[in-house]
Amino acid sequence: MGGRAFLQHFPPDSLPRLPTPLYDTLKARLTALLLTLFAIVEVPPEKPEKKDHGDIDFVVAHPLNREGITPEQVGRVLGAVKSIELDGNRTSNYAINIIDVRVCDDEEEAERVTVSHGYGDLGIIIGAIAKSYGLSVNHYGLKVTSPHPNPPMHLTSSPRVIFDFMGLSMDRWMKGFETVEETFKFAATSRFFDPRRLHVPSMHTFNKSVEGRSMYIDFLVWAQDKAPSVSTSGPHQDAVEEALITFGKKSEWDAIVQEHYARTWLRSNFNGKLVAEWTGLGWRGVKAVMDDVRSSVGGERALVGMELEQVKGLVLKSQKSLKLDA
């Protein structure tokens, strides 16, 4: 979650990677220290079969001190020789080899971050499966894209609820995975898993979100010859609509879509340029005509959906009634 933060402060060979036995020992010792400061201390499970580790990522919440815990206090308890401290609930980096501590607002956020970063690229893999159906899953929760310029619509923050919706077992996730292939097989149990919707990027289409994600690329390759989970009992083709209904957001979504349609329609079918072409008037006359048309129909929203010739007819009628000549 930030293990490369110290490379600008120390030579690369001064921060060697941790073999798994040392990693486990340090994790246990530092977890005990952090539990003197926070009620919740988690470490996202590492990628299965990993031989060594660049850092230890801690996710913490619920400070035991009512006044809160400062990054300086965390550094002192950990015995850090150097730290990069960030204000607020962001990740701070502490050099004992490398330690990252992400302070979360509550237990649910801690669970989201832990699940999202757990087992290597598994969170990215699950996000890719969701994205193939128009859904967005990341450490913020489950969202669907709204019409521009509206922000994405948030549906839920709960990892357990998201897993249930996607047909994934949180109990199975909690049991852990011994091999990378086990994580692939777990992801493929999602009712949204359909390898026909997942594509291995060619070298020239790689971007920063994929670079260094060998586990994610390996999953895409692994998935290509697998049968999709989608069947007659699988997800509805319109997974976005299903998600909106499931999480009680359909009415809100429909209102946003309708508003977007109305704005788009009016920009294309009732604008100053068209009115000027139809009437031959200058900008003052155009404004007067458009205001009069709006008034005559009870507001411009009443125009939405009309045939263009009908709108033109209303404009020319208004021009005539206002006695405006080109």
Total helix count?
13
Strand order, sheet with most strands: 2-4-7-6-5
Parts with pLDDT < 50 across at least 5 consecutive residues: 2-10
- Main sheet summary: 5 strands, mixed
Work out the radius of gyration: 28 Å
The beta-strand count equals 10
Shape: elongated
Helix content: 40-55%
**Beta-strand content bin:** 5-15%
Distance between the termini: 66 Å
Description:
The chain has 326 residues and is an alpha+beta fold. Helices cover 44% and strands 12% of the residues. It has 13 helices and ten strands. The strands form three sheets. Strands 2-4-7-6-5 form a five-stranded mixed sheet, sandwiched between helices. β5 (83-84) and β6 form a beta hairpin. α11 (272-279) crosses α12 (283-297) and α12 packs across α13 (308-322). The longest helix is centred in the C-terminal third of the chain and has 20 residues, at 250-269. The protein is elongated, with a radius of gyration of 28 Å.
Attribute tags:
five-stranded mixed sheet, elongated, 10 strands, 326 residues, disordered N terminus, alpha+beta, three-stranded antiparallel sheet, 13 helices
Tell me the layout of helices and strands.
Layout: E1 18-19, H1 20-34, E2 38-42, E3 52-53, E4 56-63, H2 71-78, E5 83-84, E6 91-94, E7 99-103, H3 107-117, H4 122-131, E8 135-138, E9 141-144, E10 153-156, H5 159-166, H6 170-175, H7 180-187, H8 214-223, H9 239-246, H10 250-269, H11 272-279, H12 283-297, H13 308-322
Parallel strand pairs: 4-7
Antiparallel strand pairs: 1-3, 2-4, 5-6, 6-7, 8-9, 9-10
Helix pairs in contact: 11-12, 12-13
